[in-house]
Design goal:
The complex is a heterodimer of chains A (67) and B (358). By secondary structure, chain A is an all-alpha fold. Chain A contains three helices and no strands. Chain A has one domain. The radius of gyration of chain A is 17 Å and the shape is elongated. Chain B has a single domain, classed as Amino acid/polyamine transporter I, CATH 1.20.1740. Classes of the chains: A mainly alpha (67), B mainly alpha (358).
Chain lengths: 67, 358
């Protein structure tokens, strides 16, 4: 996993350095990378997380919207 | 003035490939109706046609604007951005589902000892390179890929000709009515309604958008129907108990013990069309995010989004059963607002407010 994160960091840096004069672009890249790294770390941890579809399924079940 | 980078022909072919990339989704409605799975597919085509008219009417009314731009014009800046974010989430969800499907197919059928994550990473890395090269190049590729897959499907049907049994289609309308409703709803929202994603690219497409949308949908949807009919005619009631009917049907090809075990060829078709589908969706996600955030270039967001898609696909469902249950009973309700309600509401609001772009 540490290898994956290091590779990801290099990709992030390379993309980040290419963005010139686009403040929103840099912020967006930082945000999406932070989300990516967080999910990667959560995958390694003991915390049980599931794909969004499972949450959607539980929510629709709660609303009673299903066949 | 936005540069028109995509030709009408490429747009149409990309839509056909996109729909063919959904053949793995037949598992979400076939088990319900078994040998009658062709009925929801046919009914779905007819019922989706008005939706295609709505999508193309939106594209022509707001020429030069993508789906996110249309939302901002019709619903205002703040509400438009919120609705665009919801669409982006919907696109992420179906991208993850498609990635999960093709990865699971390879992991279950072709290379059972290889972890699923390997397939997810390989697919998304290839799609990332394609997305970075631009949607116009992905759509240009469609012609070659479609030619290969069409030849392959025609040859498969010819090789299976001696296994086709028309009695496999009988009896007709033998299931409960609610099962037909459920399956038609699933078909309309799941493979067919997903073409709403092409509204992200209509502003850079030249030619007649209405014709492109209609032809692309009709040919793509009819090709899915032909594949379903082929599978039912060969497999019959077994259609409801297999995970990938096309793969199981091709297993039966046996020409004098010489030409056998060519089912692995179907994996080429599946990976090619899934690549097209995932790339188009992936491109829509990063372009949508860039537009909502107001950035100049979407290409820098591609790898970051790829990691998120891989992670969500790796997280996956607890079991194959849970995935099928989600597809059969829940996904249609989740997709209905994005494929049916919002586009119709957008068009009605635009007409009432007499909004359009020149």
């Amino acid at each position: 996993m540490s290898t994956v994160i290091v590779v990801y960091a290099f990709i992030f840096l390379s993309d980040f350095m290419q963005i010139k004069g686009d403040k929103n672009g840099r912020w967006l890249l930082m945000l999406s990378s932070a989300v990516g790294i967080s999910v990667l770390l959560l995958l390694q941890s003991d915390i049980k997380i599931t794909t969004p579809a499972v949450h959607i399924m539980n929510f629709l079940e709660y609303l009673g919207l299903h066949y | 003035m936005t540069a028109l980078k995509i030709k009408e022909r490429d747009f149409t072919i990309a839509m056909i490939c996109f729909l063919q990339g959904s053949t793995l989704f037949t598992i979400f409605f076939a088990p319900n109706l078994k040998w009658e799975a062709w009925i929801p597919a046919l009914a779905g085509i007819v019922l989706t046609l008005p939706l295609i008219w709505v999508y193309s009417a939106l594209a022509t009314t707001f020429s030069g604007k993508s789906l996110c731009g249309i939302n901002e014009i019709v619903f205002g800046k703040a509400a438009g951005k919120i609705i665009s974010c919801m669409y982006i989430f919907y696109f992420i969800e179906i991208t993850v589902l498609s990635t999960d499907n093709i990865g699971s197919f390879f992991s279950d059928y072709i290379m059972p000892e290889t972890p699923k994550a390997v397939f997810f990473i390989m697919i998304i890395v290839v799609c990332s390179f394609a997305v970075r090269s631009g949607i116009e190049n992905i759509m240009k590729m469609g012609f070659v890929l479609l030619a290969f897959v069409t030849v392959s499907v025609v040859v498969n049907i010819l090789l299976l000709a001696n296994k086709i049994n028309l009695k496999n289609f009988l009896p007709v309308f033998s299931q409960e009515f609610i099962k037909y409703v459920q399956s038609v709803h699933t078909v309309v929202t799941m493979p067919f309604g997903e073409v709403v994603v092409f509204l992200m690219f209509t502003h850079i497409t030249s030619g007649n958008i209405k014709r492109g949308y209609l032809l692309g949908f009709l040919i793509g949807a009819l090709s899915i129907l032909i594949i379903i009919i082929r599978d039912i005619s060969v497999l019959g009631v077994a259609m409801s108990i297999v995970s990938v009917p096309s793969y199981e049907a091709l297993r039966l090809i046996d020409i004098s013990n010489i030409l056998t075990r060519i089912e692995v060829l179907i994996s080429f078709n599946m990976v090619i069309m899934s690549f097209m589908k995932i790339s188009v969706l992936y491109c829509a996600i990063v372009e949508g995010i860039a537009e909502v955030a107001g950035t100049k270039d979407y290409k820098h967001q591609v790898w970051a989004m790829g990691v998120i898609i891989i992670c969500f696909a790796v997280l996956g469902f607890e079991s194959g059963y849970q995935e099928v249950e989600y597809g059969m009973s829940y996904h249609a309700f989740f997709a209905t607002p994005f494929t049916i309600i919002l586009p119709i509401a957008t068009l009605i609001t635009a007409k009432l407010r007499r909004l359009k772009t020149v």
